[in-house]
Amino acid sequence: VQLQASGGGLVQAGASLRLSCTASGSIGSLNVMGWYRQTPGKQREFVAAIDGGGSAKYADWVEGRFTISRDNAKNTEYLQMNSLKPEDTAVYSCYANVVSSGSTSEYTYWGQGTQVTVSS
Fold first, then answer.
1. Contact indicator for 81, 62 with CB cutoff of 8 Å
2. Nearest 10 degrees: Cα torsion 27, 32, 33, 39
3. Cα(37)–Cα(43) distance, rounded to whole angstroms?
4. Given this model, what pLDDT does residue 40 score?
5. CA-to-CA distance for 47 and 31, rounded, in angstroms?
6. Going by C-beta distance under 8 Å and a sequence separation of 6 or more, which residues neighbour residue 107?
7. Does the pLDDT at position 31 exceed 90?
8. DSSP class per residue in 25-64
9. pLDDT, average across residues 1-18
10. What DSSP character marks residue 65?
């Protein structure tokens, strides 16, 4: 199973970005998908997650600015980020909890991370 993230970039404060993350490979069941972010010198922090039924949860600091969604037919999750702030600058990594085909065990897979830079 591989996760491919895309959509990062350099934007000004107040702008929007949409991150995407697509899972591929021998996927039997794609369960919770989500995003974390990390900046140098800081611990990785949770951003948002969504389950297969579409129920989402967010970090408190998101404050309604981000929306996570998914397209189960495409094995893809999205993170729509609006009203971006300089403090949102980080590497954003996606993850997915996957049960591979023919297996009964769930494992967490990670994408490679995509850089988001917000200038003031």
1. no
2. -130
3. 9
4. 86
5. 17
6. 1, 97, 98, 99, 100
7. yes
8. SSEEEEEEEEEEEE-TTS--EEEEEE-TT--EEE-GGGTT
9. 97
10. S
